Amino acid sequence: MRTTGKNHWHTPSKRPQHPKAVYAGLAIAATSAAVFAGWLNSNSEANDAAAIAASIEAAPTVAVEQEQLLANLFTNQPVVITAPTPTTAKTQKPNNVTATSAAPKASEPVATPTTEAAPLLWKTLTVKSGDSFSSLMERAGFSTQAWYEVISLGEATKALTQLRVGDQLKVVQEEQRLAALDFQLNTEDTLQIRRQQDELTVSTRSVPVERRTVSAVGKIENAFYLAAQKAKLPDNIIMELADLFAWDINFALDIRYGDSFSVLYEEKYQNDKKIGVGKILAAEFINKGKTFRTVRYTDAGGKTNYYTPDGRSMRRAFLRSPVHFTRISSRFNPNRLHPIYKTKRPHRGVDYAAPRGTPIMSSGDGVVTFAGTKTDYGKVVIIKHGERYSTLYAHMNRIGKGMRRGKRVKQGQTIGTVGSTGWATGPHLHYEFRVDGAHRNPLTVKLPLAQPIENRYRADFEAHAAPMMAWLDALNQTQVALKD
Ligand SMILES: [Zn+2]
User: Fold this and answer.
1) d(CA 322, CA 73)
2) Residue ranges in the chain whose pLDDT is less than 50
3) 300 to 45, 123, 196, 259, 461: CA distances (angstroms)
4) Interval between CA 358 and ligand 1 midpoint (Å)
5) Measured in angstroms, how far is the CA atom of residue 427 from the centroid of ligand 1?
6) What structural domains and CATH numbers belong to the chain?
7) How far is the centre of ligand 1, averaged over its atoms, from the C-alpha of 335 (Å)?
8) CA gyration radius for the chain?
9) What is the pLDDT of residue 18?
10) What whole-number distance in Å separates Cα of residue 195 and Cα of residue 146?
11) Is 430 buried (19+), middle (13-18) or exposed (0-12) by CB count in 10 A?
């Protein structure tokens, strides 16, 4: 990648600048252009070095001001990175397919685009239990004819025959007839029915969701969660970040003063309004001086996963614990006295105390070999994972829906809930882990890595990962510069 002296941040500034700060700024300018080359080519396309170089050439300036960036890093504010002007992302207009040119927003009362002076009066109808489209229309005062007129529009209005409780329709009534109807089909699409020249027409209006990339950095002074909050990370990103590194870092025990993190994630916008948070694209965690990095990648086959920069999976083939937020109430112990029978009975698993009803997850991908009741285990599910491994989940309150012999399950999938069936003194999950048929301690057994990147996708993965890693480098250098 080329970084030239022509970069606009190199132009003489009135303010004296620390050389490192300038360097950090440069790195960010260069890498952000590179990253954008990647995004503008859409996530799946390979962004080779030529494309990146071309994009830097074409767009030497980036809309992130150095001052803003540095100020944001000081305050740990997420930095909004906007693409340079001649891009597709910013120029996208809502794709209005209605016949009229002025697209009314579904939620606002609007004037008719035609000549009538009277504004349309929008009314919201909410689907209740037992409602159908016809009963909903009737209750709102429409004639039977009105309902029929809509349904006659055909396939396009099929969604209206599949309404669910809580769905909302926005309608405009004209005597007993329908003048207009809006129904939100999904985040992006709204079904619109309009009366024009006495005829109803139907169309779909789409407002595309735009994804913007933001970054945040933080340094841990006491707790990870506090530092992440200070960095203005949304809660689900904080959880996801901890989950991503949970295989390598024990967040309850290993976090130290001075640990730090950087994260690139998406925010979702519609019509320039933030509507939510997307996924983590790349992240770094420095724990006790050791750096861990990850990047999200979707291969051409559609499989999405988080990998280390060299293409190993971030996750193991098994979760360390099949329940969230619980306390270990009894450990693996081959010489234990049984709590009920007071005889020497080895405890061949780990017990997790958890409230009744807490979801139990399959700790790995596999196939159910048993789902039913046993005297001692109570309601129990056994899962086989490949040739060598199997896991067992006992004392369930309920066995998950559809769990039966031969059923395929994914890692993290709920397979039942915590209970106290069988020989149990209180609600807990008894979890066993077997390797080649022998019981092993689930808390200490060496867990095999999940599948690495497939060879056929490696080149594409590397092209995707490189600019992400460059971004993390740039964020680091900025942090270093700030410390001096
Ligand atoms: Zn147990």
Assistant:
1) 37
2) 1-116
3) 9, 45, 45, 35, 10
4) 16
5) 11
6) 8-87+210-316+460-483 (3.10.450.350), 122-206 (3.10.450.350), 327-440 (2.70.70.10)
7) 13
8) 29
9) 37
10) 12
11) buried
